[in-house]
Write a structure and sequence with these properties.
seven-stranded mixed β-sheet; three-stranded antiparallel β-sheet; 17% strand; globular
Length: 359
């Protein structure tokens, strides 16, 4: 991160700490529904949404889900452990896990950017990320998908802005291909810009160890923030993680409305995510199987006459002029189902692959 930007973020953290006083200590639950901190201090639980007081009658795994509120969007010990594990796995400074993917995308933009800043984003980014950009007050500058020349032009045009933030997906769902992160890193460094990557489809699916699209491109860790939708590779019903610079994460903890008003992932989701993360860290062989299966599926579709390229992750996509009914019939004969979207007069077909597929 550019020293001037880092200094600004540090100042914003100091200001936010002066106006809000979160207690970020982890705690355990007492039998009467109270909270016990590591120091042994016991307090009443006034941050719970269990207004009718049923937490003491529920199983412990259920009562853990009762806690949320100001900066406490899931303040269970297991959630703190998951955040630490994600930071260690990604080799980042800090990680924050919340319940709402779309809400976090909006919070990141609103917490970091104002009218003095500019958000420069790829036209093909995910819908929640695009909505988050739209919700903030910063100037918006869009560049055509993968057009690095236009990105550089936008960076030049915004030189007078306080903060310039380049926003892109790591792996694009529409194509299954990786963003040109090598060039984005060079441009962000050249023009003192921040970089935010939504690597929801790249996390645990790309790179030798599953650390994501930046590892695949050989520029691991250059981005200031990495967003991960836990509903994908971590098999959670809800949940999103954002990892990166510790001051940016601290700023989100202090300012994010998601921390105040959204539920955290359930205890079962947290436990399952931790198990998947530990298993992958110990044995990343599933990632290799996933890539082989995706390449094999791409070859099968290519042999059937579809213009399909080998993907960088577990998403195989192609665009065709064929009627949707005919596509469905062709894929069904191969034992496949897909998701469809209209792109002008053509149809975008996307198939998700897993390491356990057998073609």
């Amino acid at each position: 991160m550019n020293p001037n930007i880092a200094q600004y973020i540090e100042q914003e953290v100091v200001i936010s700490k002066a106006t809000s006083h979160p207690d970020l200590s982890s705690f355990t639950f007492t039998p009467d529904g109270g909270l016990m901190f590591a120091t042994g201090e016991t307090v009443r639980n006034t941050i719970s949404t269990d207004f009718l007081g049923f937490s003491g009658c529920l199983e412990q795994s259920r009562s853990l889900d009762r806690v949320m509120g100001d900066y406490y969007s899931g303040s269970s010990n297991s959630l703190y452990k998951l955040q630490e594990s994600l930071s260690q796995f990604l080799q980042t400074e800090d990680t924050l896990v919340l319940g709402s993917y779309e809400g976090l995308c909006a919070d990141i933009m609103e917490s970091l950017l104002n009218t003095e800043d500019v958000a420069i984003y790829d036209a093909a980014i995910s819908v929640p990320l695009r909505r988050g950009i739209k919700s903030c007050q910063a100037e918006k500058m869009r560049f055509p998908h993968g057009d690095m020349e236009r990105l550089e032009q936008n960076l030049k045009l915004s030189m007078l802005k306080r903060l310039r933030v380049v926003i892109t997906d790591g792996i694009f769902y529409d194509s299954g291909h990786c963003a040109n992160l090598q060039t984005i890193r060079e441009l962000a460094s050249k023009y003192d810009a921040m970089a935010i990557i939504d690597d929801s489809f790249g996390f645990l699916t790309t790179g030798k160890n599953g650390r994501g699209a930046d590892e695949l491109c050989g520029v691991r860790g250059f981005q200031d923030l990495k967003i991960i939708n836990m509903q994908h590779s971590l098999c959670c019903n809800t949940g999103v993680a954002v990892s990166g610079d510790k001051n940016l994460i601290q700023l989100l903890r202090l300012r994010s409305r998601c921390c105040r008003y959204t539920l955290s992932p359930s205890e079962n989701d947290i436990i399952n995510a931790q198990k998947i993360l530990d298993t992958t860290a110990a044995d990343p062989s599933r990632i290799g199987r996933l890539h082989r299966n995706a390449a094999q599926l791409a070859d099968i579709l290519h042999n059937e006459g579809f213009e399909c390229e080998k993907p960088d992750a577990g998403i195989v996509s192609f665009v065709t002029d064929m009627p949707t009914d005919k596509i469905k019939t062709s894929l069904r004969k191969l034992g496949l189902v897909a998701q469809y979207a209209k792109v002008g007069k053509q149809t975008l077909v996307s198939l998700k692959v897993s390491a356990s597929c057998n073609f």
